[in-house]
Write a structure and sequence with these properties.
By secondary structure, this protein is an alpha/beta fold. The chain has eight helices and eight strands, in the order βββαααβββαβαβααα. The protein has helices at residues 53-65, 70-79, 86-104, 152-166, 181-188, 202-215, 224-241, 260-273, and strands at 16-21, 27-31, 37-39, 114-124, 127-135, 141-147, 172-175, 193-196. β5 (127-135) and β6 (141-147) form a beta hairpin.
Amino acid sequence: MSGNEEACPTCGAVATRKDGYDRRGGQRFRCGECRCRFTATTGTPFSGYRFPPDVIALAVRWYLRFRLSYADVVELLAERGVRVDPSSIYAWVREFAPLYADAARAFRRAVGVRWSVDETYVRVAGEWAYVYRAIDEQGQVIDVYVSSRRASADAAAFFRQAIAATGVVPDEVTTDCAAAYPPALSAVIPGALHETGKAVQQRIERDHQHLKGRLYPTRGFKTLAGARVLCAGHAFLRNLRGGFYDLTQRTAAQTWSASPVCRIWDVLTAELSAR
């Protein structure tokens, strides 16, 4: 394929030619086989968006990584000559945060078998909701589950979700003395050693502070779905920064002076753009 050709996303043909520009100023192509017109983002998750992938990727990374509101992200983009509405940032985060985590899933390192589990709190529609979280012995965030209740059924749902997401069944689980955990562990992980107490929970309690700090600028959520997206996206960025994804070797050839997370994020953006 020459540098001026793009494979047709509809029929896969490479006999394509340039065919003007779209409303965004991006190059448009026409397939010589099925005659359809397309751009470089057609058929990718970025298709149909007014802004290019690098702007969307930057906004989503900023929002998940730093203690920013949607308005803060809008202001930072405006300083770079990009004018966007806060509602667009909201829509991008809801759509692309799970997609980035999914794109990196195959490169995630296996979690450990010693889990520290606890829940923290977040406001959803003016009411308290519970954020179940777990980390392993290396500090990797295993999974996050947001629920409106604090009951054995919700704790069991969290354990099932974490095992399904990681493929790992823990040998040891430490929790606080909440009554919800023993029945949940008996139902889902009956063979795991269960330890309780304030001292054994200090690691997960300290780790909660990172999430609480990130949630403070939001001043709560309107829906459980919004809380789940941000809590899960924050955990993904934490793991990415912690080196729990084997993606660094894919950025070794890059020469620009950016942080490892920035380079990895660019790799994941390229993965999504190629879908």
